[in-house]
Every structure is written in structure tokens, then in C-alpha cells.
Design a protein that fits this description.
The complex is a heterodimer of chains A (about 325) and B (about 375).
Chain A: H1 2-24, H2 29-43, H3 51-58, H4 61-94, H5 99-127, H6 131-144, H7 146-161, E1 169-172, E2 175-182, E3 186-191, E4 196-200, H8 201-205, E5 210-211, E6 219-227, H9 233-245, E7 257-265, E8 267-278, H10 284-302
Antiparallel strand pairs in A: 1-2, 1-5, 2-3, 3-4, 6-8, 7-8
Helix pairs in contact in A: 1-2, 1-6, 2-3, 4-5, 5-6, 9-10
Chain B: H1 2-12, H2 18-21, H3 33-38, H4 59-73, E1 77-81, H5 87-94, E2 102-105, H6 114-124, H7 133-137, E3 145-149, H8 164-175, E4 180-187, H9 188-198, E5 205-208, H10 214-224, E6 229-232, H11 240-247, H12 251-270, H13 274-284, E7 285-289, E8 292-295, H14 308-319, E9 322-323, H15 325-332, H16 336-348, E10 352-356, E11 362-366, H17 371-381
Classes of the chains: A alpha+beta (about 325), B alpha/beta (about 375).
Amino acid sequence: MIKRLVYRLLAGLTVLLAAPVSLLAQGEPSNNWANFVENLKNFIPGSMEDPFLDKLKENPGLLIQGFIALPIVLGSTYLITRVLKWLINQAADRSNRYRVQWLRAYPIIRLITWLFAIGFLLQLLMREHWGILLLGIVIVVGFSAKDGLKDLLGGLWLTIERPFSVGDRITVGGYYGEVKDIGLRATTINTLDDSMVTIPNSYILSNSVSNVNSGENNCMVVTDLWLPIAVDVAVVRKIAYEAVISSPYLNLDKPVKVLVIDHFRERLATVVKVKAYVLDSQYEKLFESDVTEAAKQAFCREGVYGNGVHGVDAPSS
Amino acid sequence: MKNALQWIQERLFPTPDEEGLFPPVPNLDKLPEQYLRRFDLSPLHEPEQVIGRGGEEGALKMISKAWEHWKDYHIHLLLESEPGIGMTSLLIASLPIFDCPQYLVEDRERITSREELLPVLSQALGMDSAESLESLARIELEKPRVVIFENVERLFLRRIGGYDLLRDFLHFINATRRQVFWIVTINDYSLYFLNRAMNFSDNFQARKVAALSDELIKQIILNRNEGYQMTFFKPHEFSRRHKQRLARMTPEDRQESLEKQFFEQLTQFAGGNISRAIVFWLSAAQGLKEDTVFLKAPHITKPQEVRLEELLALEAVFQHTSLSFEEVEAIFRHSSTNGHLLLDRLLGHGWLYPRCLRSGVQEYQVNFWYLHELKQLLKNKLNRNIQ
């Protein structure tokens, strides 16, 4: 069985590469074709008894059918996935509450659509013994783009394993941003300065990825407020807490924590760490900025900074 | 194809002529002031005018049970409800329950400082004046007293330092718990926020005042319309099949069917909120002729889309029930011009409407017409976990 498959594969590959040359050769086209297939049978050991090559010899139109079916099915599938993506984006926009869930669903739906399309194509081609041609194409493409194959497998793994999903905020390869698309070859993330970064899936597979919201539409935001060491902790804690609970971007259903830490490096400082969840991860930086702005205004009003910020150490990172 | 089907349908089942189905539009008089006063949004002042709140499961029974509970355990009552549900009317209706002096602190002013709060509380406790909240809290009353404090959300402003007065108020009512039964009311969305910010309802026996049933809403509207006949015009949305059904009826049955359809639309729009039902009725009332009011159900349009900044401003207004320009600016730390422009836009789109306080300060509150749509937006766009 395996032997037979290997013969067919070899035949398919040879047909794929040599058929156009044969058809364009000088002389009677049908004779050229018949001679070409006969030579092929002699060339591939064990293929003499394969009925497929006889069928191909009689009807070269099968080759053309295969070439037509492939782009039609692949093109239609591509269009269907685009329409599905548009529909899912519409649904996500309508209900922000379930935005991440909608976006997460897309890569799986796309994978299923492609599996159906490939299954349909295989079924269609196998009926006419064109599976070997398809396998030939896959191998030609696969060997000619080894890295591409690695990326493709990486894309499949990311879709099935789901270490992150569309809508998550991840750090990979020094880039931090929202995952916009998990393609079969590469993953696209939108960084905080609105750059779209495309990262090959094989790179993601071989590197560590940090995910801050893991499928939730909110994420924790840690805001550091740097203050002089000699501050009234009760005052700054109250200000920090009220700054965060008054922020319009706060997720009200999650806990808020205010931590006060002394910092000893070069110069002394008090760091107030405000840990809270933003209502939607896309407003992460707006939330952080809003809390910092409100707290700074209140610290200034209360004279917390004393003679300015000269006594405060800057964060090392 | 569709046209051909319509043509065949029209030949087989011709659409009846509309002129014969609905009353001709007479020259209507504008709704007189006397009639409009019946549908005023202000609360009822006589306990007997309040209907549908009694019974074993009713809100009055709930207040009565809380009163009995206070006698043993001295825990105050917090009543939460959606704005416009008739809370003040309910509280007025509850006054006969208490066999001791009562005082209602109505929501007529925003209270922003201890200096403003002190005379309000002194008056509530029947005192002429007091030096401070602390000294007022130490007074000895001859008899227990019931004080109803309406819309407690007017004591806070969502900004740094904006919660101190509300904390002072909580300290004060806790200090007077043995002598005074405090009934505090709050907008349900304000409570959603304050519970997360400062566990507000932990200080009370918290109860939610249920929405009114559709039957009750209809009854209240009909009571207010008492003495006037109703005639219904052709509604905005009208199917061909419905028209054919009406054509087979007598004029009286036809009006009855239109009335049923009208009240179905009204109660669906109101969603248990009497203020929304009244706003719907007033939009529907086209005019009067002698003692007949002519009604046509209004077309319910979708509200204007709002951007994030506008939605956050609407949320702030809803959290405080009403806010002035200056307060919105203080919450968002906007420049004065931006705050004005933002609220003007929301006012223009019908999301807000102005409300004048006793002091002459103009505040803005969410238009009842879009109240439920706003709640839905807060849920969908800001992921707020509200009912």
C-alpha cells in the first residue's frame, strides 16, 4: 500500500513538473502525451500495473480539470473566510462585552473551513486519482519553502493549542501589543504605538510568550507612582485608591490593590503600586495615564512632592 | 417575482381603504395645562394616590418589616431602584406606617460639604442648629424618629476627595442609629458603583424596589386619564394583515383592538418604569377635542450613536443621577470648554435633559426616553455587570 502510494507520488511529481513541457513539445500533441506517459511508466519502477497512468494517457483533460478545480476551491474558501472574518468583526463591534470571545472563535472557524475545503478537494481529486497530484504540489511547495512549512505547522499548533487568541495582549520577541490575527504562516500584533508587527509562527513556537489577559476582555494594569521617601502613607494611599476607583476605565467587578513599597537604589523613594483591572484591555494605557494624572494632581495639591520630584529615584528599567 | 406575488395577493385579498378604518383627524386643541399636570413626572403627595405597592409582597410591606427589624437591631434601610420608578411617591405612601415623628429630606440640591450637610441633618432631627456633625450626633431625642434621605448619591462626586462627605454621612447615621430610623434611597447604578468603591450597602438592610407590573402601569395611566375618552389613530407600524383584520371589525371593536395594541407598546417601552410610561403617553397624545384625547403611538427611534468619551460622560451623569457642567469637568479634569461642548452634544442628541435645582444651578440628567438604551450600552460597551 505504502509502496503504491510512493509510486503514485513520484508519478504525480514527475507529471506535474514535466507535463507542460510535454504538451508544448513539437509534433502531434496526443502522440507526444501518449509517448510521455509511456516513458513515465518505464521510468518509474513498479508503475506498469497502475491503472491511473493508463487513464491519464487516454484522457489528458483530467490534468486540466485538476488544475481548474484547485484554484476554484481554494479561491472560494479564501473568500468564505474573508466574509466570516467580516461577520465576526461586526459581531465583536456590536457587543464589546463578548468581543474577545468572538475574535477568539475566528481562527478555529477558519481552520475548520480550510479543513472542509481540503477534504472536499481531496475527495474530488482522489475520485479521479488526482490525490497524487495534490500531494505532489504539497511536497513541492513544502520542500521549496521549508521555513514556510514550519510556520504553517506553527499556525496549526497555535490554533489548536491556543496559548493566546485574537484580542489577547501578548509580549513576544520584545514586542507588546494586541493580537490582531493568527494566520497560518504568521501572527500579527498591534503594538501600543499602533504599529502592526508580523511575527512568523515558527519564531513564536521557539520563544517564550507572555499573555496578560488570556481570553478575558479585561486585564490587570499596574501603575507605579513614584514619590519621595518621607510621605504620609495614609494620605498617598487614600489618594491612590480614590484615583483608581474614580477612573472611568476601571473594571468595577474586579479587586483593586494599593501597595506601598520603599525603594532603595541610588536615591530613596516610595513607590505606590496600584493594581487594578481595566474594563477593556484596549484602554490599558488610557487607564494607566488617567490614574497617574489624577493622582499626580492630588499629590501636588497635598504637597506630597515637597520641593518637587528631585528626591525621587527613577525606575531602573 | 415579489411584485407579481403582491399583485396576485392584492387581487385576491384587496387591502381595505384606510380612510374608513381610522377616525379622520379633527382640528385638535393643544393639551391644556390642566391635563398635562395629570401626567407630571413629580411625585404624588397623597399616600392614598399611590396604588399597587401594598400586599404581602409589596414595597410597603417591605418597609414595614424593615421598621420592625430596626426596633430590635437598629439597622437602617437602604432602598435602591431605577430612577423614575416612583420611589418618592412610595416613600410618601409609607409615612402612615411609622408611629413616630417623620421627616423627608427631598432631593432638591446637591450637597457638597459638611457645612451644607449640617443644616439639612439638623432640620431632619428637629434641631434649630448645631455646631458640627459630631455634636449633632450626640443629641438625645425625646422619641425615636424616622428620617427619609432621598437620593444619597448627591453626597458624593466621583473624584479624589469626593467620597469624604458620604463617609461622614455614614458615620453620622451610625452614631444616631438608636434614636433614628434612617431610610436612605439610591439610584441602582450609583449603588453598583458605591458598593464596589466602598461597600456601601454593608451599612444597611439593603432592599431593591421592584419594577411595576405591566397591568399596574396601565392602571396608573388610565387613572391619570380619568374623565377623558381615548381615540386611537393609525399606528406608525402597521402590517397589511392587521389592516385586513381591523377591516372586518365594527368601529368600536377596532378602537378596542387599537387600544390593546397601544398599551402593549406602552408597557413594553416602559419596562416597569412609570416615568417612561408617562413620557410615552405624552409623546402619543396628539391633542384634545372636548373630552376626548387623540392618541398615536410614537415611533421609537434608535438613539444617536455615542463615542467612548460621550458614553463615559453619560455614565458619570447616571452614577450621580444628575450633574452640572462644572461637576462633569471636575470628574474628567476637562477644560471648561470641552466639558460644555460634550454635554451640549449629548443634550442636542436627546440623551440628557436639563433639570433646575432650587439654588438655580442647572444640572443634567439622563433622558427617561433613553434610560434603558443607556443601560444596555453600559453593559455592552463598558462591560458593566448590571441588571
